[in-house]
Design a protein that fits this description.
The chain has 222 residues and is of the alpha/beta class. The protein has two domains: 118 residues, Rossmann fold (3-Layer(aba) Sandwich), CATH 3.40.50; 96 residues, Winged helix-like DNA-binding domain superfamily/Winged helix DNA-binding domain (Arc Repressor Mutant, subunit A), CATH 1.10.10.10. Helix content is 43%, strand content 22%. Helix 2 runs parallel beside helix 3 and helix 6 crosses helix 8. It starts with a strand and ends in a 5-residue tail after the last strand. Bound molecules: calcium ion. Calcium ion binds next to loops.
């Protein structure tokens, strides 16, 4: 994992870099906005820690420039204490997380690791719930034995919504709202048809009927 630390406070930069190296990260640092923009554009970093108050070029402009060029590296922004507007501007500019100064270095390390895990999860495109694994790329689901089941587009969207909301009662109209686009014709009776198809492919007990209420996915014993 390769991290870029952008911070003009030399003592803080050194402390962060040392601590991150202790965590077995490869770490580079930049002390001004122009150097930061150039280095970040190289595309070699797994994450960036970006201070906003920088000489040469403000951190927000650096972040906007990266995002405008399609550089989607995860960025954790460091903001001045209690500067809520910096947090808002940071997120609008494309930051993934923020930390207000002063902070404990341990918190920064923990947040950075969480950011890296999230970005890796995104690459995997899989979701595992109740013994089923959903592959978002191939639109297929596999069970605990590794058996792969291919799904149609609507079956996939419906199962994905169930898997993001396990053990919750979901009404037919709620399901229809979440699996169809705004302009699609939403006929909640069609949900019944798709639930029947999913049960045929996945096993009947995966999706239980709550009479008069809707359906529940992944209940105990299912
Ligand atoms: Ca600064």
């Amino acid at each position: 994992m390769h991290i870029l630390v952008v911070e003009d406070d030399a003592a803080l930069a050194r402390e962060l870099c040392d601590r991150l190296r202790d965590e077995a990260f490869a770490v580079d640092s930049a002390a001004d906005g122009v150097e930061a923009e150039y280095r970040g554009a190289e595309g070699v970093y797994d994450a960036v820690v970006l201070d906003l108050g920088l000489p040469e070029k403000p951190g927000l402009d650096v972040l906007r420039a990266w995002r405008a060029r399609g550089i989607d590296v995860p960025v954790l922004v460091l903001t001045a204490r209690d500067a809520w507007y910096e947090k808002v501007e940071g997120f609008e500019a494309g930051a993934d997380d923020y930390l207000g100064k002063p902070f404990h270095v341990e918190e920064l390390v923990a947040r950075l690791k969480a950011l890296l895990r999230r970005s890796h999860g995104d690459h995997a495109h899989t979701l595992s719930v109740a013994g089923l694994t959903l592959d978002e790329d191939s639109q297929a689901v596999s069970d605990a034995t590794g058996r792969t089941i291919r799904l149609t587009g609507t079956e996939f969207r419906l199962l994905r919504y169930f898997m993001h909301n396990p053990r919750r009662v979901l009404s037919k109209s709620q399901l229809a709202e979440h699996i169809y686009a705004f302009d699609d014709e939403r006929d909640s009776n069609v949900i019944e048809v798709y639930v029947t198809r999913l049960r045929r492919k996945l096993g009947r007990d995966r999706i239980r009927t709550r009479r008069g209420q809707g359906y529940v996915f992944g209940e105990d014993g299912a």
